Amino acid sequence: MPTTTPAPLQHPFDSAPAPGSAQAVMPGVLWIRLGLPFQLDHINVWAVDGGVEGWTLVDSGLGDSRTRDSWEGLFQGALGGRPIARVIATHFHPDHIGAAGWLVERTGASFAASLTEWLFACTLSAGSTPAMDRAVDRFYRRSGLDDDTLMAVLGRKNAYSRGVPTVPPTLTRLRAGDRLAIGESLWRVAGGGGHTAEPVSLHDSGRGLLISGDQILPRISPNISVWPTEPDADPLADYLDSLAAWSALPADTLVLPSHGLPFRGLHQRAAELRDHHAERLEEIAAQCAAPHTAAMVTRTLFKRPLDTHQMVFAMGEAIAHLNHLIRRGILTRHTGPDGVDLYQRA
Ligand SMILES: [Zn+2]
Fold first, then answer.
1. Is the pLDDT of residue 180 over 70?
2. Ligand 1 mean position to 96 CA, how many Å?
3. Cα-flanking dihedrals φ and ψ of residue 271, to 5°?
4. Exposed site from 25, 42, 100, 269, fewest CB < 10 Å?
5. Separation of 297 CA from ligand 1 center, angstroms?
6. How many whole angstroms separate alpha carbon 150 and alpha carbon 308?
7. Å from CA of 223 to ligand 1 middle
């Protein structure tokens, strides 16, 4: 669940390209904006000029017809009719990987991502099985949601394959620490975690550029959630480690995020996000002086009314903080006679 924080960051560009168009960030790096049919109405994707081999695209947009139309316009427009050599997905979320299957089919490009993110995309786009549905059912019943909300949450259909109609069938695997030469530029694959299990970012230390995916964004706090596939996960620990790693990069790095405007102020932004989670952890630990369900914690953290979709993300985020507090030995969890989990100070 994104939350807005004041962001006194430096933005070298005060406006973004219109959806379906591009502008240069610096020679050989294009900022492309694609529209999304959500409240978050855009994604930034990046095209890096690889010289004779053609463009490397970082992220692809949602797998819908609007995105495909945008790409068709861009191929002959901003991309100058030159080949697309490679499509990279920073992570498996539909706005990032959704059009990648179509792009590689359409252009003959290779596809690169981390193994985990690609496998997640393959699994989710294949749809759910009865056993997976039962695991989802158990996960949300344990959270203590009221019956109406629980039924609405369980009634959701797997929407993943709508945004990701095809996943690229073959992978060039990226690992944290890999070096990637794109034309004259040399990029290091930076890892991390928390928002998803094994996202990749790309860092060009020569030019001080970081393509950050959703790992660090200028205005919204990336969603850090626990999902029914891994109910005891502690993604917040991974995310806090990632924030510490960003702080080791040069302070004047120009961050190219997937949403919002490029910015300088990486260290400051990492500190804001760390403080945001620290405050949440403190608030939840204080609440759990008395036993609380995950649903009670969610309602306290997110006071405004939440629709079903928002509730799923808010609940995932609340459980991420609860699991982290358990791992730190601050909270314990036990299951009551009604099958609902209760969290309490250890
Ligand atoms: Zn994402």
1. yes
2. 7
3. -65, -40
4. 42
5. 23
6. 9
7. 8
Report the interhelical angle of 308-327 vs 266-287 (nearest 10°).
Answer: 80
Q: Which CATH number is associated with domain 21-129+158-285?
A: 3.60.15.10
CA of 224 to the centre of ligand 1 (A): 10
Distance in Å, CA 344 to ligand 1 centroid: 31
Structure-token pair, residue 251: 């302070």
**Tokens in use for 268?**
């400051």
> From ligand 1's centre to the CA of 259, what distance in Å?
10
**What is residue 51's DSSP assignment?**
G
pLDDT at 1: 46
Query: Can you give the residue ranges of every domain in the chain?
Result: 21-129+158-285
Distance 222 CA to ligand 1 centre (A): 7
> How many angstroms is it from 85 CA to the middle of ligand 1?
24
Q: What is the mean pLDDT of the chain?
A: 95
The pocket of ion ligand 1, defined by CB under 5 A, consists of 93, 214
Q: Which residues contact 120 (CB under 8 A, 6 or more apart)?
A: 92, 196, 197
pLDDT digit string (tens) for 274-303?
999 999 999 999 999 999 999 999 999 998
What is the amino acid identity at position 69?
D
Question: Ligand 1 mean position to 198 CA, how many Å?
Answer: 11
Joined tokens for residue 128: 């759910």
* Dist. CA 93–CA 335, nearest whole Å: 32
* Ligand 1: centre distance to CA 91 (Å): 7
The backbone region for 231, taken as left when phi is positive above 0, alpha when psi lies in -120 to 50, beta otherwise, is alpha
Give the number of other CB atoms < 10 A from CB of residue 248.
8
- The answer on pLDDT for 3 being more than 60 is no
Q: Give the alpha-carbon dihedral of 6, 8, 9, 15, to 10 degrees.
A: 80
